Amino acid sequence: SGSGSKWFMAYKIQKSFSGEWFNNAKVAVLGASGGIGQPLSLLLKNSPLVGELSLFDIAHTPGVAADLSHIETRAHVTGYMGPDQLNAALKGCDVVVIPAGVPRKPGMTRDDLFNTNATIVATLADAVARNCPEAMICIIANPVNSTIPITSEVMKKYGVYNPNRVFGVTTLDIVRANAFVAELKGLDPARVNVPVIGGHAGKTIIPLISQATPKVEFPADQLSALTARIQDAGTEVVKAKAGAGSATLSMAYAGARFTFSVLDAMNGKEGVVECAYVRSEETECKYFSTPLLLGKHGIEKNLGLGKLSAFEENLVADAIGELKGSIKKGEDFVANMK
Fold first, then answer.
1. CB under 8 Å to 72, separation ≥6 — which residues?
2. Running DSSP on this structure, what letter comes out for residue 204?
3. Residues placed in the known binding site
4. Annotated binding-site ranges for NAD(+)
5. CA 316 → CA 87, 265, 301, distances in Å?
6. pLDDT, tens digit, for every residue of 40-65?
7. 3-state secondary structure of 338
8. Which of 18, 85, 228, 260 has its CA 20 to 30 A from that of 267?
9. d(CA 124, CA 127)
């Protein structure tokens, strides 16, 4: 009862080593006024892990910041608008979350967003490299399979690239897999954990149902349909929204979940594991998503692919070509930048 019943208390709050009930992280959201940015900023404002919330966008940020600043939680909110305020928004940030960019419309693939979003992500990564090169960088902007190579190459140009601190947020794939498996099996989704590896688009999304906890089994046809639904879930939402955008609320939830895991780990919590799309030696792809043990300095250990079923091994083999192409496309974009 009382304040203890506030819904954000559902987020497990870890006592950090300082003996405080929170840490004082400064978190920036770049693209804070958008469809994902607003609900993501709301979830971050609601967390006791966040001390300062820095909101940046090219429009509407003063209003979003004023609105969120009235919420009775400790995070101090500041809004920054326009390119000339980007540097100020990033000064001293511990974590930078980037949902900026344009969403898909019906009939578009994530790769159709490349030309617009590649430029946006490169510009923002450049500012991060100059203003808070040590920050954890969490990229939501699609196509993630290419925007992570873009971010990495921009950081390299400044000599500040740390592969343990650059993450492509694939958490929504895991969240969807958990929800869909729970639905099919009548389980509590909060108890289900399905690792999802590979990338974050179409057939590069590889749910490892064989590694799910609790253990679940599906006949071949149902497994095939479930895998396809997880891979195409973003398009399911794009179609349902009929031109009004793509997944924003579930993406904001997933982005917040990943950010809280990063903050928990930075705070000294042990055993924090999340899948994310990162620089990797686990396959022949330079970037690949697998379960990661997170720590105070980002990735502590890449937990790898684990034991795959024959069905899953085929999914991985099918994904490699497309992933390599998306990675090269991102790297080439930075190489050819003016």
1. none
2. G
3. 31-37, 57, 104, 110, 117, 140-142, 176, 251
4. 31-37, 57, 117, 140-142, 251
5. 40, 29, 21
6. 999 999 999 999 999 999 999 999 99
7. coil
8. 85
9. 5
User: Are 203 and 315 in contact, with CB atoms under 8 Å apart?
Assistant: yes
Residue 289's CB is within 10 A of a number of other CB atoms, namely 34
Backbone conformation region of residue 245, classed left if phi is above 0, alpha if psi is from -120 to 50, else beta? left
- The C-alpha atoms of residue 95 and residue 91 are separated, in whole angstroms, by 11
Tokens of 276: 């994310």
> Hey, what long-range contacts does 204-209 have (CB within 8 A, 24 or more apart)?
204/145, 204/319, 204/322, 204/323, 204/326, 205/170, 205/173, 205/230, 205/231, 206/312, 206/315, 206/316, 206/319, 207/173, 207/177, 207/231, 208/305, 208/306, 208/308, 208/312, 209/177, 209/181, 209/309, 209/312
Q: Where are the alpha helices (DSSP H) in the chain?
A: 37-45, 61-69, 86-90, 114-131, 144-157, 171-185, 220-231, 233-241, 249-266, 310-335
Which pTM does this prediction carry?
A: 0.93
200 is catalytic: yes
* Token pair recorded at residue 110: 């994530």
Q: Catalytic residue among 60, 70, 76, 200, which?
A: 200
Q: Which residue has the tokens 């999340």?
A: 274
Give the confidence band of 338 by pLDDT, cuts at 50, 70, 90: confident
Closest CA to 88 of 66, 56, 120, 63: 56
Q: How far apart are CA 16 and CA 100, in angstroms?
A: 31
Residue-wise pLDDT tens digits, 219-251:
999 999 999 999 999 999 999 999 899 999 999
DSSP lists the bridge partners of residue 231 as none
